[in-house]
């Protein structure tokens, strides 16, 4: 990301945070029956979320609610376009749709990394990590690990070694995973039925200048 893009992103972040601080104050004066009202009006004790933490959570909920699934759908359509033999398998056998969604999550995840702060000293792969270190986990690399997957760089809808890290693990496993899977599965089933000849018309596809997110900024398709 260049300087200008980074500055614009930072300015937008400040603007969004300022708007949310005002919104939280309004919700405390006039609460409604919604999630943000409940979060903003939690017991005001030493364990409550600060407005900064609440703003970060709100932004996370906003983007996690649609952007990641939007990216998954776009990446899946591109993968099918670039692998017509795999698409033929889906057209011949719709029971492979769920597997195709999982393979898209592995092959071209819309989230490429997650970040964590080490809670203890530890060593991973010969690399010492100290308590408090900020660590980046590269999901895109893990999902293409040749030691884990046969033909790791190939998109295969009938892959036997299914599995991926795109939704995370443990207590931070994505709470929206079932919804994202259902939405993508439903859309793919409908497209295979109503637009079996769907293809991407763009020669070049633009992606965000963000390391953590991978999705087409726009996708032009036709059914012909």
From TrEMBL:
PROSITE patterns: CYTOCHROME_P450 (PS00086). Transmembrane segments: none annotated. InterPro entries: Cyt_P450, Cyt_P450_B, Cyt_P450_CS, Cyt_P450_sf. GO terms for molecular function: heme binding; iron ion binding; monooxygenase activity; oxidoreductase activity, acting on paired donors, with incorporation or reduction of molecular oxygen. It holds the Pfam family p450. Belongs to the cytochrome P450 family. This is Unannotated protein.
């Amino acid at each position: 990301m260049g300087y200008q893009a980074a500055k614009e992103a930072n300015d937008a972040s400040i603007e969004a945070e300022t708007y949310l601080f005002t919104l939280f104050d309004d919700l405390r004066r006039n609460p409604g029956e919604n999630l943000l009202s409940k979060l903003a009006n939690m017991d005001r004790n030493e364990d409550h979320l600060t407005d900064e933490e609440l703003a970060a959570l709100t932004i996370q909920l906003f983007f996690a609610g649609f952007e990641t699934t939007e990216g998954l759908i776009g990446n899946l359509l591109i993968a099918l376009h670039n692998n017509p033999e795999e698409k033929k398998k889906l057209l011949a056998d719709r029971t492979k749709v769920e597997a195709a969604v999982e393979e898209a999550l592995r092959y071209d995840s819309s989230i490429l990394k997650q970040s964590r702060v080490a809670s203890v000293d530890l060593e991973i792969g010969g690399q010492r990590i100290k308590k408090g270190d900020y660590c980046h986990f590269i999901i895109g690399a893990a999902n293409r690990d040749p030691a884990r997957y046969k033909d790791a760089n190939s998109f295969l809808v009938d892959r036997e070694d299914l599995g991926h890290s795109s939704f995370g693990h443990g207590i931070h496993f994505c709470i929206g995973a079932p919804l994202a899977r259902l939405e993508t599965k439903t859309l793919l089933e409908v497209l295979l039925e109503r637009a079996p000849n769907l293809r991407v018309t763009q020669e070049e596809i633009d992606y965000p200048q963000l390391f953590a997110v991978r999705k087409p900024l726009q996708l032009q398709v036709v059914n012909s």
